[in-house]
Amino acid sequence: MKKLASILVLVFAVTFTTQAQKKRGGNGERDFKLTAEQHATLAVKKMTLTLDLSEKQQNQIKPLLMAQMAERKTAMAERKANRADKKRPTADEMYAMKNERLDKRIAMKNRMKEILNKEQLEKFGKMRKNKGKMAMNKTKGKKGSKDNKGEQRGRRS
Length: 157
Description:
Protein name: DUF4890 domain-containing protein
Keywords: Signal
Signal peptide: 1-20
Region (Disordered): 117-157
Shape: elongated
Largest sheet: none
Oligomer: single chain
Number of strands: 0
Order of helices and strands: HHHHH
Organism: Polaribacter sejongensis
Strand content: under 5%
């Protein structure tokens, strides 16, 4: 009887914890929704701070980023719909998607080469590399692990 009671308590504890995480948006969902134009404006401003863009460069980059953000939102909506229908892409579809994504990145890089000078282009390349590293670090360490921000705060051995 004690085993049954302890198993029930454990099941309830796990259930309540997962429900609490869902309510907070623990799966990467954010409470705020920005439009493609808002995302692009923020991205241009960040790039302006980092790369010291001129007004002309900002006006050339913003439509590129707006188009990119709009494509990203539609692709995300499509993936959500497929996930809801429990559809998984085939190997050929995955290849086509990755190939298309790389083509778009190459095209974007070429457009950026036309807009930015050499010094700005180098900084832009470093920004992109660092962005990828930051994303990897976010997913690498879980809350409370020593990989995440060096060591735990507030705890002493």
